Amino acid sequence: MSASSKRHLQSDGTKAKRARPSEQDIAAFAPIPELVRPNLDVLFVGINPGVISGQRQLHFGNPSNFIWKGLYESGLIPEMIQPEHGDRLFSEWNMSIVNLVQRTTPSASDLTLREMRDAVPELRRKISANRPKIICFVGMGIYRAFASKSKVELGLQHEVYEYERIKDSDEFPEFGHMFVMPSTSGRTRAYQNAEKLMYFRQLKYIRDCVAASPQPMPIDHDRLAALGPQVRSRYFTTR
Known about the structure:
Blueprint: H1 3-6, H2 23-28, E1 42-46, H3 51-56, H4 66-73, H5 88-93, E2 95-99, H6 113-130, E3 134-138, H7 140-147, E4 155-162, E5 175-181, H8 193-210, H9 221-227
Parallel strand pairs: 1-2, 1-3, 3-5
Antiparallel strand pairs: 4-5
Helix pairs in contact: 4-8
Enzyme class: hydrolase
Region (Disordered): 1-22
Protein name: Uracil DNA N-glycosylase Thp1
């Protein structure tokens, strides 16, 4: 057993529980640093940091969050990574992560609707300034607040996010595709991981189309639909 493992054992040999931060500690957590630049292939938008993320200062900081497995198993990234290596999304694979709300809370349900709506203008500013090809909202509630809609469908949205036209420039996209997937948190019980993975596979197909070189390819919506779940149900299972 390594020395680091021994430090986490109690005198009776059982593993010691990590002390949970107090409410005051959680309130004092700094916003998680965000890495953004123009022309990202995918910009993921999370709702806000949970306690583990805020404590570790990492996006989706809990290794059990399905986003990491979804990225790898869908082929969006070529190898499985842990949250502490999440900056590789930015440095190697032209993707990144931001949050709608910067404040850390024990649960996303601790956020008020007003707090989420008040955060939308800053998120729109980041998106408009950096012009990602795809904006992926990791949770339906995020997109509801962003688009001021009460009813939201999962998957590729019909509307696009239009950018201010840059005269005589083909370097940056004129719009960003908007994609909504279920929350990847383990607390989200309405969608099983097998179904969540289908949305990652749809996203990977869209990414491959819009990032194709030398020119983007059109999205085949029949092929896109075939990659996704045929029945969107909380009781979805694979057989």
